[in-house]
Write a structure and sequence with these properties.
single chain; alpha/beta; Aspartate Aminotransferase, domain 1
Length: 456
């Protein structure tokens, strides 16, 4: 059998490489060698009864070479039902944002130029008008992401070791094991923790201000919830206190729902939380992510009053975390989409969040019927629950519909793995030992990709 193994050159010269014959020679050679080596190992261990035909070996080498030399970031179908899946790039962009990138980013843009005077100006200023119309802020500054926005704001306002008062109930660890308190301290600010894990009272903040602190920061719990014997001070109470004492109030809102848009959470008092609410309550700076409920590109937005934002904009850290033109083009278009339709109908993530259960069920039934026709595939339409994800709206689930799939002779884990390796990779959940395709997060054309992948 070993004598039947082809020479590497036989694989390399094979016509089946097609378009991939122009992949780097070293990559094709390495892939071909690895395929032949794997077969040799299998023969020697006795686990193979015959050497696969040459075209099969070439197919394997081609797949592996494509994987090595092809693009590493590819379009993926999100069948998980998690709308803002951080590992899958969070919010899909609105059509308007894509148009802005496509029509403008291939050329030049007035990123930092005032076209009326021809003079240099700020890349942030351009977004202020749009943002202030939608959320009523005086000014806006954009950083690379919300964590960077927190770091930037505190560097500028408290970087010299000033005290920042924060509740012990709000010391959040965000994804990737990064902790907001650590990010806040990295700015040079000194955290003045108040309250207990489950209960923080207004008098705790008062005592901190009495002791000389001048900055209060409220941090949204975003990815966890507290139930039972709890107490949290609302942004309005903090706004009133800080204004009375002449202290600065910052609100890291994380998810960033603008106004009464879909997806807003309820605060301690049961009222919806939003950027506008925090601004109205007197927060001088509200910080939120661009790619969570806002539905835009990765960005950290600081919206607030001009005097505070001027300080932030002029701080050297601003230059370290400033966004590029792709981000700003997409962000402006995202805000225009909210302005044109405050229900979020122009934003894919907001649309997914508010999708009607009957429509989801109809989609699941149509997909289920197509999958059930495939040989060796069993498909059952089942009720399920989606989640907003992205570290927002903890504990909130959305009733949804999906298709539970089993493939003859394959475990759920192997089926899920095969789907991830499909030409258009599908990422799905496993529930009750079956692969579950939640239709809520499928975009146009995704159902076809699921059918194609399972049929393959
Ligand atoms: C998500 C989140 C962040 C981090 O935002 P990124 O844009 O991912 O950097 C910070 N604070 C809160 C409260 C969050 O929810």
């Amino acid at each position: 059998m070993l004598r039947g193994l082809p020479a590497i050159d036989k694989l390399l010269d094979h016509p089946d490489w097609g378009d991939d014959a122009h992949l780097p020679h070293s990559v094709r050679r390495e892939a071909s060698r690895a395929v032949v080596d794997a077969v040799r190992t299998a023969v020697l261990s006795g686990s193979l009864s015959e050497v696969p035909p040459l075209d099969e070996l070439v197919r394997r080498a081609r797949t592996s070479a494509q994987r090595t030399a092809g693009p590493k970031l590819v379009r993926v179908v999100n069948a998980t039902g998690v709308i803002l899946h951080t590992n899958l790039g969070r919010a899909p962009l609105a059509a308007g944002a894509l148009d802005a990138i496509r029509t403008i980013a291939g050329g030049y843009t007035n990123l930092e130029m005032d076209l009326w005077s021809g003079k240099r100006d700020s890349r942030h200023g351009r977004l202020t008008d749009t943002f202030s119309r939608v959320i009523g802020c005086e000014e806006v500054v954009v950083a690379n992401n919300c964590a960077a926005a927190v770091f930037l704001a505190l560097s500028a306002l408290a970087g010299g070791g000033a005290q920042v008062v924060v509740s012990r109930g709000e010391l959040v660890e965000i994804g990737g094991s990064f902790r907001m308190p650590a990010i806040m301290e990295a700015s040079g600010a000194k955290l003045h923790e108040v309250g207990a894990t489950n209960r923080t009272h207004l008098r705790d903040y008062e005592a901190a201000l009495d002791a000389g602190a001048r900055i209060v920061m409220k941090v949204h719990r975003s990815n966890f919830a507290q139930v039972g014997f709890t107490k949290e001070v609302s942004i309005e109470e903090l706004g009133a206190l800080c204004s009375e004492r002449g202290a600065l109030l910052l609100h890291d809102l994380g998810m960033g729902v603008l106004d009464k848009a879909p997806g807003s959470t309820r605060g301690a008092d049961g009222a919806s939380e939003s950027v506008r609410r925090s601004l109205d309550a007197g927060a001088q700076a509200v910080l939120f992510s661009g790619d969570k409920m806002l539905g835009g590109p990765q960005a950290g937005i600081i919206a607030g009053s001009s005097d505070v934002l001027t300080k932030i904009r002029k701080h050297p850290v601003m230059r370290l975390v400033r966004p590029g033109k792709l981000c700003l083009l997409a962000l402006e278009a995202t805000m225009r989409a909210w302005e044109m339709d405050p229900t979020g109908a122009l934003l894919p993530a907001a649309r997914m969040l508010s999708r009607d259960e009957d429509a989801l069920r109809a989609d699941a039934e149509s997909l289920g019927a197509r999958l059930a026709r495939l040989h060796g595939v069993t498909a059952e339409v089942v009720p399920t629950a989606s989640t907003p994800g992205g570290g927002s709206l903890p504990g909130m689930t959305l009733p949804s519909w999906g298709v539970a799939v089993t493939v003859e002779g394959l475990s759920a884990t192997s089926t899920a793995a095969a789907l991830r390796e499909a030409e258009a990779p599908i990422v799905a959940r496993i529930e009750d030992d079956r692969v579950l395709i939640d239709v809520r997060t499928l975009l146009a054309g995704d159902a076809d990709a699921v059918v194609q992948a399972l049929s393959a």
